[in-house]
Amino acid sequence: MSPRFPAVALFDLDGTLLDSAPDMLATVNAMRAARGIAPMPLHALRPFVSRGARAMSSVAFPDWDAEAVAAAVPEFLQVYAGELGKHGQPFDGIDAMLDALEAAGSRWGIVTNKPEGLARDLLPMLGWHARHGVLIGGDSLAERKPHPLPLLHAAEVMGAKPEDCVYVGDDARDIAAARAAGMRSIVALWGYRVPDDDPVAWGGDLLVDHPSDLVDAGSWPQ
User: Fold this and answer.
1) Structurally, what CATH architecture does the domain formed by 8-19+88-219 represent?
2) How far apart are alpha carbons 138 and 120 in whole angstroms?
3) Which residues are catalytic?
4) Tens of pLDDT along 158-212?
5) 36, 43, 85, 191: which has the fewest Cβ within 10 Å?
């Protein structure tokens, strides 16, 4: 039996489809500048992008306690909304992979912990607004990843069974959510990871080095 693409491919957004680290860097550096602090380099922030606004704020402002970091999240999101899509771009090979999925008759969607409104605003900038089958954000439902509900809801919207879907993500929460939802999963090794992460231990079905590998149906879990 020849290899086949999954009926439905679901993706995380930041660190999986989109290299949004430059947008995030512009955000935290604007916040630092407002406080008279010199800009930080991309390499210092990049590993934490998939961890969300609190994690990035903690890195950008290491002297802040947890309460101060939490209080800064609305500011982070407001500044980020102004930087949205201005600096980042899809990872090299993503567009070719999406083309291959569509050419094979597969459908795809996005399940992210980014606020849905911000994710939805990004899609026209990327040319994806008319191509994706579903978009679930971190505030779309009562639960967010690593809970399986967003993935299960995405499958339901797409009219697919969980076992007919594959979820691709670059964070342990992505793989945990896929496993709990009964979906096969791919660890996107090209994404964002902190130094002590061990993606092998996450329990994904496959670990893939580069988006271009997923242009080949044989690189997907069968």
Assistant:
1) 3-Layer(aba) Sandwich (3.40)
2) 12
3) 12
4) 999 999 999 999 999 999 999 999 999 999 999 999 889 999 999 999 999 999 9
5) 36
